[in-house]
Amino acid sequence: MNPSTSHLPCTVPIWAPHKEPLPPGLTEEERPFYEQNKKFEKYMGMAMESCPVKTTLAGGAGTFQLPRHLSLSCIPLTNRYPGFGIGAFFSLMSASFAYEDPYLRAQTQAGMNTTQKAGQIFREMGRGMWTSGKSFGKIGALFAGTECIIESVSVRIGLGLG
Description:
Blueprint: H1 31-48, H2 51-59, H3 82-96, H4 102-108, H5 114-157
């Protein structure tokens, strides 16, 4: 407890800058690293609240090709490209329920061995996943970008919709 406010039981302790108590397990020698980590954490929070980052993350890799120097390697892979990933997953699931005429398939694959037939099927599934993933990514980016812009404008003019 802060010595200057220890005699006041119902007040919030006030600490001088850079003299706040450290989390358990950290020493005074580690304070600069801890403060630097908190600063970068604040910057990442500000970046994640920006409209371009929200739009890019909602859209995904299939819609927006980020340059290598702008890669988002600090974000876990599971949250990186949700629009593209969900579209590809739905396409993969729908490919397993696809209705196909076995006679037509037999005519188009005449003279192929099993490996070639499997390769052709996987290529078709991959094309469908890519197309569906791009579509879902575009819809996700459009929705997230529009929502973010509407929220930021409503906050600026005081509507309080966000």
